[in-house]
Amino acid sequence: MARHAGVSPVTVSRAIRHPEMVSEELRKRIDDAVLKLNYIPNHLASALASTRTHIVGVIVPSLTNGVFDDYLGAIQDVLNPAGIQVLVLNVRYSESEEEKAIETLMGYHPEAMIVAGVDQTERSRQLLRNSGIPVVQTMDITESPIDLNIGLNHDEAGAAAVRFLHAQGHRRIAHLTARADPRARRRHAGYQRQMDAFGLSTKGLVGASPRPSDVAMGGELFAQILADVPEVSAVFTCNDDLALGTLFECQRRGIRVPEDVAIIGFNDLDFCTAAVPPLTSVSTERREMGTWAARSILELIRGGGKRPRQPTVDVGFSIKARGSTAAIETRSRAKRPRAKA
Known about the structure:
With 341 residues, the protein is an alpha/beta fold. The chain has three domains: 2-41, no CATH class; 53-152 and 286-316, Rossmann fold (3-Layer(aba) Sandwich); 154-283, Rossmann fold, CATH 3.40.50. Helix content is 43%, strand content 17%. It has 13 helices and twelve strands. The protein has helices at 2-5, 9-17, 24-37, 43-50, 67-79, 95-106, 122-129, 154-167, 182-197, 215-228, 240-253, 271-274, 286-301, and strands at residues 55-60, 85-90, 112-116, 135-138, 148-151, 173-178, 206-209, 234-237, 262-267, 280-284, 312-314, 317-320. The strands form two sheets. A six-stranded parallel sheet has the order 2-1-3-4-5-11, with helices on both faces. A six-stranded mixed sheet has the order 7-6-8-9-10-12, with helices on both faces. β6 (173-178), α9 and β7 (206-209) form a beta-alpha-beta unit. α6 (95-106) runs parallel beside α7 and α10 (215-228) crosses α11 (240-253). The chain is elongated.
């Protein structure tokens, strides 16, 4: 290809790796040659020659969960312009699949790894710890990070949702959860802890399913709550899908939101503002987590970055109050319709 473009192999390599270092005229000649010859760089050979692969591995538990859209987008927005390719593997909330995914990505000799969650198996932790590359655990926080860690306290977020509803006068507060991944379990633990602190019973107020979460499940679980505790006044769901399903079930039964039942979700996905009424949700800083993780490892693999003194960053959370929650009215309310099951 160098001969076809009329330049040296070194110039071709420089133009492909660092196009800003060659003139526009040379770039055009080389780009034309690349297109005409259908040239594809041999990254394995390049890695052997330079000891760099320009690859960062990313492991997520789901590619269908909207939570990870902004997160992955933020990582790519930082790394791709720097000439680093992002290899993403989906482990479907499985610890054993996560182990295999780590082994697979390590076979490509990535320059860094980003993983969602902090609950890796001991073998996964050993693989990551012994890799000798920067590792960032995201989405959650831990007191014993493998390397770097950015996330939020899900236990405290669950407790905060209960405090928010309690301040509005709600006492019969239900919790709906699905697929017992570690972060969902921590949100439930926060819910239970805060309900206990308020001296409130949770009997009949917890709806759970081991199945993957979806909108329809929110309605199913809420229907179970209504059968056991007809006077439930508020629902905190472990994600926004379940919150939307709860809203639909209320509308199907003629239950007013928020006058009869208040609803608060988790993650604050885009559709929360489009729902009628708009859904209140615990907002998580997914883009910030992805951006921080990507920028941190980019600085480290370039050799100019210093590891932070505090390896763990808690980005916190916020509650976006919207039309699906409101203070309980002081006047007596008409009995809510519960039929139409």
